[in-house]
Amino acid sequence: MSNVTVQGGQEVVGVSRIEGPIMVVEGGTNVSYDEVVEIKDARGNLRRGRVLEVGEGFAVVQVFAGSTGLSIDGTSVRFLGTTLHIPVAEEMLGRIFDGLGTPIDGGPEPLTDRYADVNGQPINPTARIYPRDYIQTGISTIDGVNTLLRGQKLPLFSGAGMPHDQLAAQIVRQATLGKEAGAPQTEGEEFAIVFAAMGVKNDVADYFRRSFTESGALTRVAMFLNLADDPPVERVVTPRAALTLAEYLAYERDMHVLVVLTDMTNYGEALRQISNVRGEVPSRKGYPGYLYSDLASLYERTGRIRTSKGSITQIPILTMPNDDITHPMPDLTGYITEGQIVLGRELNFAGVYPPVAVLPSLSRLMKDGIGKGRTRDDHPRWGAQLYAGYAKTQDVRALASVIGEEELSEVDQKYLKFGRAFEREFVNQSFTENRTIERTLEIGWKLLSMLPKSELTRVNLDEIEKYYKGDDATN
Amino acid sequence: MSNEVGKITWISGPVVRARGSKNVGMLELVEVGEDRLVGEVIGLKGDQMTVQVYEETAGMQTGAPIYGTGLPLSVELGPGLIQSIYDGVQRPLPLIEEAMGSFINRGARFDSINREKKWKYTPKVKVGDEVKGGVILGVAMETDTFEHRVMLNPDDSGTITWVAAAGEYTVTDPIAKLKMGKEEKTITMLQRWPVRRARPFVNRRGANIPLITGQRILDTFFPVAKGGAAGIPGPFGSGKTVTQHSIAKWADAEVIVYIGCGERGNEMTEVLQEFPHLIDPRSGRPLMERTVLIANTSNMPVAAREASIYTGITIAEYYRDMGYHVALMADSTSRWAEALREVSGRLEEMPAEEGYPAYLAGRLAEFYERAGYVNNLNGSQGSVSIVGAVSPPGGDFSEPVTQHTKRFIRCFWALDKSLASARHFPAINWLDSYSEYLEDVGGWWREQTGKDWLGMRNRAMELLSEESRLSQIVKLVGPDALPFTERMVLETTRLIREGILQQNATEAVDAYSSIEKQIRMLELVLYFHERGMAIVKRGAPINLIHDLPVVDRIIRAKSTVTNEELHKFEEIQKEIDDQMGQLDAEYRS
């Protein structure tokens, strides 16, 4: 904890208890809830903390850098009188910060007199603009069947060992404002990127840094790094610091901001750790009862508001412990975010990239960003038909594994073929392949044409007339 | 109006303790700190009080004052509620935006009901009338077509001594004077009511009219009665909110109260931006003109989330008292229960199941019991129907909120993740759902349509449960092993699933089905089944029936036949006759 500037405020010597990252300080008066404190240890080194609870003559303080080396006697605490603020400026793009927003790239402190509270404030629902513009990511499983819109929060649910980092990097690299199918491709507006790493390995942060460098995006990226060996308690602040900058860029500087948060599971664990030390009543799996509200206070900092042209789109990455989607972290995330992209272990084994498990994936806002005038008229029904077809494939596969493929009816055999082609041609694409929306729709129709017309009940007859290319003799 | 009653001694999130006067009442509304944040007293012990604060407490200090108001947490009732959007403690969000910009700041205080706006008022009582609580004093036009019936506060009664002439008045202008004993009281259109106290009525009447929602799986298969309570539990992504929105759009209630309780900001914005443009099929007016929105999104203060449910139900009861049918959607009651849990945890109460407080079941019961079809104090009849969404962690219905909710509702719409994954919407599982109102509303269906709805509905359910049994077998040995008669059942149930149960909320024709259309569709599918069964029994192979062109017609009828062109069903029936007739003739010999 270098160069922390000493500010005014009352200084108190009187630590009565230290337990994990939590410290009880006695003797302060007029301490505010959620106030920032500066802690000076016996050797005169400074670290920061935050007030979690105040009572008469005592305050419970959470120490961001952890309490290692703090002693009851030699420690003094200065109450700074304000909640945690970070500097925000456009020039922070292209820079690297620690989990509390202090530069760690050797450069100077950002030159600005604008400081913002990391907790942010809730957006008034009447001030929001409902998201309607789709983002073309060039990835069929997203653009086609789980469309991402500007101002949406769409997490990647993954597991250890799966290529969620590559997928996130590809999205960041390829994302442009979507055009209607057939409209000329123009140079899309570029996104500013705010990247927050929480408890991930240095390799992962480095991977993203390299990927941003290679695509020439590095000058548009602000990175907030709290790596695996950094103090876990700081992790609770890292995404808040990142989102505070994102809000400034989007709502005050009219930029379109893409926020990548990785890995939310580590964030949840940091929260659980603090809660346990405080002796709070746990709910599921030891997580605190307020986990939902806490996650919402991050994820809801997404969207568009009427007074600004900018937007915040969030892509949180979350590794599901033991691939369990009912674990509290993915579960509560899914209840707050507007859909989820789920990566599937089986597809990954089969060598499909990106291994997006289409059936459990969902984009809630998709319906409002696609269709006539946005992508193409048939897109919504086309998507529902692909989903229905692929869902049916799963049933057929289960049946085939019992009675054998040869015993399947003719129609079911077609479903099997459709399912295989869907995974190999639609889901599968290369790390560098950037598909247009037309291309994605075209591949989809090619696949649907493998099925008899009578099975296509989700699309309408005109669309079948126009796009169906099969040699179906049954109708 | 407010005096200092104590000083803060302890702060943790939304819960604050203070020491001071012993005159503060339980559940009294207090103002906390110099910013005068709204709070409510939830515990008293000696000179110590515990307060839950409805706003963010960051920056608050010990030693700061607490002011008492002497009143319980209340809502303002009067013309102007409709078309409003409030936060959990009835602060108008548009005014907050005007005053504070796009973000919600602390300490915002506004009148819930506009004091300047004038309403066209016509008195309905005259001087000398003896009036009792709840009686209609006059009417104000709340929209061009909606009649707001101004009622005497249920606690008041007396003799009218003065009545304002018909004209335009604000909600604070006197509209009548009432002699109560020795006192004379001036009556305005505005009244306050404590949110945690149910508004009184004479008695409950039977709930035997269905709340028609235009959603086939609800109306035809699992109807909820007007004045009833239904629960929609489902894991994330299974369509709770879409279903709630569909009901809010299409339900045949005169007033809709929609509570977004701890849910997404964008969803409330969607309602706000969409409803003024959607037209109510019955009144021909924008849907917003019958809607009251309460938005306490997930990132807004947690204690206000707890209050939002009560704010909403009190407003709903107020319109019920006027003699209207009101439908209330609460999305989601689980977030409300979590708010209870969070506050309970901060109070260090002994937890019961999964950290929820032991009084969870009691609170849920209190809430759902405020639904009902009642005889009002003024002789009119009105209803409040509650549709509560439940968000069980991990989609596990055995968790406490779902289980306790099931005890207090009579209609259960179970959402199913696997149906949602296959994009079968609404993803309501027909085998796990139930309605206890079937018998109650059967008579109504017969009166309205002249058809045996219950019989047909039960026949269709029988086929669906048969399908579930058969599909177990199919999974093991394949469909070819089944006799044709059983495969005929599978053909029919495919029609029921794809043609009736699936409904596309985003497609104009399909989004709303009239009850006539619903019953005709059901009739048609069952007719198809009977004719098909007869032919199959004569030995015709099932694939001939599967390949009949009319099958596709039936499945597509939901989106090709509008509510006004029901005669087209006769054409389809004729097609069934023609095509089946041909097969029948071939296999008759």
Concise structural overview:
The complex is a heterodimer of chains A (475) and B (589). Chain A contains 13 helices and 22 strands.
Task: For the structure shown, list the relevant keywords.
heterodimer, A: 475 residues, alpha/beta, eight-stranded mixed β-sheet, seven-stranded antiparallel β-sheet, 22 strands, 31% helix, disordered N terminus, B: 589 residues, alpha+beta, six-stranded antiparallel barrel, 26 strands, 36% helix
Protein described:
The complex is a heterodimer of chains A (475) and B (589). Chain A has 475 residues and is of the alpha/beta class. Helices cover 31% and strands 21% of the residues of chain A. In chain A, strands 9-17-16-18-20-14-21-22 form an 8-stranded mixed sheet, with helices on both faces. The N and C termini of chain A lie far apart (73 Å). The N terminus of chain A is likely disordered. Chain B is α+β, with helices and mostly antiparallel strands. Helix content of chain B is 36%, strand content 24%. In chain B, helix 5 crosses helix 6, helix 11 packs across helix 12 and helix 14 runs parallel beside helix 17. Chain B starts with a strand and ends with a helix. The chains are: A alpha/beta (475), B alpha+beta (589). The interface between A and B is large, with 89 and 81 residues.
How are the SSEs ordered, and which strands pair?
The complex is a heterodimer of chains A (475) and B (589).
Chain A: E1 10-13, E2 15-19, E3 22-26, E4 36-40, E5 46-55, E6 58-63, E7 76-79, E8 85-87, E9 96-98, E10 115-117, E11 128-129, E12 134-136, H1 140-143, E13 148-149, E14 156-158, H2 164-174, E15 176-177, E16 192-200, H3 202-214, E17 221-227, H4 238-252, E18 256-262, H5 264-277, H6 291-299, E19 304-305, E20 311-319, H7 328-336, E21 339-342, H8 345-349, E22 362-363, H9 366-369, H10 379-403, H11 410-427, H12 437-448, H13 461-467
Parallel strand pairs in A: 9-17, 14-20, 14-21, 16-17, 16-18, 18-20
Antiparallel strand pairs in A: 1-7, 2-3, 3-6, 4-5, 4-7, 5-6, 8-10, 11-19, 12-13, 12-15, 21-22
Helix pairs in contact in A: 10-11, 10-12, 11-12
Chain B: E1 3-12, E2 15-20, E3 28-32, E4 37-45, E5 48-53, E6 65-72, E7 74-77, E8 85-86, H1 93-100, E9 119-123, E10 130-131, E11 136-141, E12 147-151, E13 158-163, E14 167-169, E15 174-180, E16 183-188, E17 191-194, E18 203-204, H2 216-221, E19 229-233, H3 240-250, E20 255-261, H4 265-274, E21 291-296, H5 302-321, E22 325-331, H6 333-346, H7 360-368, E23 372-375, E24 381-390, H8 400-408, E25 411-412, H9 417-421, E26 434-435, H10 438-449, H11 453-477, H12 484-501, H13 508-511, H14 515-537, H15 542-546, H16 549-560, H17 568-588
Parallel strand pairs in B: 8-21, 19-24, 19-25, 20-21, 20-22, 22-24
Antiparallel strand pairs in B: 1-2, 1-6, 2-5, 3-4, 3-6, 4-5, 7-17, 9-11, 9-14, 10-13, 11-12, 13-15, 15-16, 18-23, 23-24, 25-26
Helix pairs in contact in B: 5-6, 7-8, 11-12, 11-14, 12-14, 12-16, 14-17, 16-17
